[in-house]
């Protein structure tokens, strides 16, 4: 199997750092692009004011 692009999503936590390391290894072994996306956690998203949208 040949992969062209690996996408890794991070929140810059310790666990995400390990996932990024693994994604980098997989990308390197397949000579693929590594795309890194940042995903912010929004713990109070359910409490957002519906009129503010």
List the helices and strands and how they pair.
Layout: E1 5-10, H1 14-30, E2 33-38
Parallel strand pairs: 1-2
Protein name: UspA domain-containing protein
Organism: Acidovorax delafieldii 2AN
InterPro entries: Rossmann-like_a/b/a_fold
Describe, in plain words, how this protein is organized in 3D.
The structure is a single chain. The chain has one helix spanning about 15-30, and strands at about 5-10, 35-40. It is an alpha+beta fold. The protein has one domain. It has a two-stranded parallel sheet with strand order 1-2. Helix 1 links the parallel strand 1 (about 5-10) and strand 2. The chain is elongated and about 50 Å long. The mean pLDDT is about 85. This is UspA domain-containing protein.
What's the main sheet like? 2 strands, parallel
Rg from alpha-carbon coordinates:
16 Å
Number of helices: 1
Mean pLDDT: 86
Number of strands: 2
Q: Which percent range describes the beta-strand content?
A: 15-25%
- Counting structural domains, the number is 1
Order of helices and strands: EHE
Multimeric status of the protein: single chain
